[in-house]
Design a protein that fits this description.
mainly alpha; disordered C terminus
């Protein structure tokens, strides 16, 4: 029997829990059911952990791409202006403005 996917494992685990809560499991079956439940919990945890890791990698990739896009966009805008100095509304560059404030 192959390993169940998350949904199958979770549903089977819920069924075992319900049977235990309702007293439907005999003492003779209890050990086997508890052992199976432990295995199902392990499967669910592993699958959730892998999913979490995949989501983090995807989000990290998206953030990296956004940073690269912003960097490229800023560089393109600077090149389009013809210079790398920011200019205030009054036409002076920011470096001169900083010196005046000091």
């Amino acid at each position: 029997m192959s390993e169940p996917n998350y949904q199958e494992a979770f549903e089977e685990l819920q069924q075992i829990v319900t049977e235990m809560e309702d007293g439907q499991i005999s003492v003779d079956e209890l050990t086997g059911k508890v052992s199976r439940a432990a295995g199902l919990i392990k499967i669910c945890k592993e699958k959730l952990s892998l999913a979490e890791q995949d989501v983090k990698e995807i989000l990290s990739s998206i953030e990296s791409q956004e940073i690269m896009d912003e960097s490229t966009s800023s560089k393109d805008e600077s090149e389009a202006d013809g210079n790398d100095t920011e200019v205030n509304d009054d036409g002076e560059d920011n470096e001169d403005e900083d010196e005046k404030e000091e």
